[in-house]
Design brief:
By secondary structure, the protein is α+β, with helices and mostly antiparallel strands. The protein is 25% helix and 26% strand. It contains ten helices and 19 strands. It has an eight-stranded mixed sheet with strand order 6-7-5-14-15-16-13-19. Strand 14 and strand 15 form a beta hairpin. The protein starts with a strand and ends with a helix.
Length: 427
């Protein structure tokens, strides 16, 4: 029997497994795909890390600890994971992003500068901000090579005695005497403790979360800059920008992969079922109420006798009989092909969503957002053939707009999972 089983060996799970093994636990990691893979929120090579956290100053102590743990992982693995480039929080004067970033810096004594658009353009030639934009520059910002970090944590966990099984989707899990039993790929495993770090796939393991947590495709774009030197790691800070057309984030060229940009998307509106039926007449209401209780906290269901068996039929309440969700259909070629294949980038001006974004994703490109495209004019491809590649990341589709996404934030992951693992090990 294991001391702990970790379901999901991605950004959170790999770090959890490592710290459990470091604490002396006999730990097992179960991963439904490979390590790393293209179907989790750590896909896409890099993730931003920053101390000037506009989401709230309460995160700064966690972020400082995260920096220490990323450096610790570099020492253990011998790999380059954390790259400091400086960070820019950009937005109109008085915007939520600017005010939140400034507040975090002031409350925690972080070094920062306030710049106008012209000063940003002068100091960092890869930017072309309009005069209406302002920025908070914090020199400690940068990025984490997220997929490298997962590989490093998994390898370090194995070196400490942890077991990892890949291509092992979990079919079921249950409590039993003395701990937990997990069925994965027709194999049974037992442990005293169970940790679920399945990221956006957690809804498939915890039914109570199915309605609020689902895997959703997110698109990132890499381009080959015309002026490559302006987008090198030492000259182009990572950025988090709030603009009238939405919130964007971006990275310098990391090891020749190209300039990377993405867009934050709020969760899609809930899918609605058909309109409710018209209210019944007074006579129909009286007839129905005589045979069926009114709908309250639990709707009544009818039963129909067929011989010796009793068959449950659909609820008699119209509210419960209406569909509440619609199953997503896989794009041509299946999910794996849709999330890994290089895609054509539309270049014509159009407000319609590209036809291939069938996985609830959207693309940041000159064809869909011409106003922001001009701000990085030197990096945009002039045709589809000049794009380096487009990538995808799968993340939860239900994160509130103004709350940090802990699952896809390596800045917080390292500290959070270490404290979680230590707590588990002590119990």
């Amino acid at each position: 029997m294991y001391d702990a089983i970790v379901i999901g060996v991605g950004g959170m799970g790999s770090a959890t497994l490592y710290h459990l093994a470091q604490s002396g636990c006999r730990a097992l990691g179960l991963e439904q795909f490979d390590i790393p893979h293209a179907f989790g929120s750590s896909h896409g090579s890099t993730r931003i890390i920053r101390l000037a956290y506009s989401e709230g100053p309460e995160y700064v102590p966690l972020l400082r600890a995260a920096y220490r743990y990323w450096r610790e992982l570099e020492e253990v693995s011998g790999r380059s994971i954390l790259q400091v480039t400086g960070g820019l929080d950009i937005g109109p004067a008085g915007s939520w992003t600017l005010e939140g970033s400034r507040k975090s810096c002031v409350e925690h004594g972080l070094a920062f500068e306030e710049l106008d658009g012209a000063e940003v353009n002068r100091r960092f030639p890869g930017y072309r901000l309009p005069d209406s934009m302002r920025a908070v520059y914090q020199p400690d910002g940068g990025y984490v090579r997220s997929e490298v970090a997962i590989e490093a944590y998994a390898a370090a966990a194995r070196a400490l005695g942890a077991d990892i099984v890949t291509d092992a989707p979990v079919r079921d899990w249950e409590r039993h005497t003395g701990g937990w039993r997990v069925l994965a790929d027709d194999e049974r495993y037992e442990a005293r403790k169970l940790v679920i770090t399945a990221g956006p796939w957690v809804g498939t393991l915890l039914p109570d979360l199915q309605s609020v947590c689902r895997a959703e495709r997110q698109v990132m774009l890499w381009t080959e800059p015309r002026r490559a030197d302006a987008f090198e790691s030492g000259r182009f800070p990572v950025f988090n920008m709030e603009s009238p057309s939405g919130r964007y984030y971006g990275f310098p060229d990391d090891r020749g992969e190209g300039f990377k940009i993405g867009k934050y998307y709020p969760p899609p509106p809930p899918e609605r079922g058909p309109p409710p039926p018209p209210p019944p007449t007074t006579a129909a209401r009286a007839s129905r109420s005589a045979s069926t209780p009114t709908c309250g906290s639990r709707c009544a269901t009818r039963t129909a006798s067929t011989g010796s068996a009793t068959r449950r039929t659909k609820p008699s309440c119209a509210r419960e009989s209406q569909p509440t969700s619609r199953k997503r259909t896989a794009p041509p070629g299946g999910w794996r092909r849709a999330c890994s294949r290089i895609r054509r980038i539309p270049t014509s001006s159009s407000t319609a969503r590209p036809a291939w974004t069938t996985c609830s994703s959207r693309l940041v490109s000159p064809g869909t957002d011409s106003s922001s495209a001009a701000w990085w004019a030197e990096s945009w491809p002039t045709s589809a053939s000049t794009a380096r590649r487009s990538g995808t990341s799968v993340a939860s589709g239900s994160r509130p707009r103004d709350s940090p996404d802990l699952q896809s934030s390596p800045a917080v992951n390292s500290w959070y999972v270490r404290r979680t693992a230590i707590s588990i090990a002590r119990e």
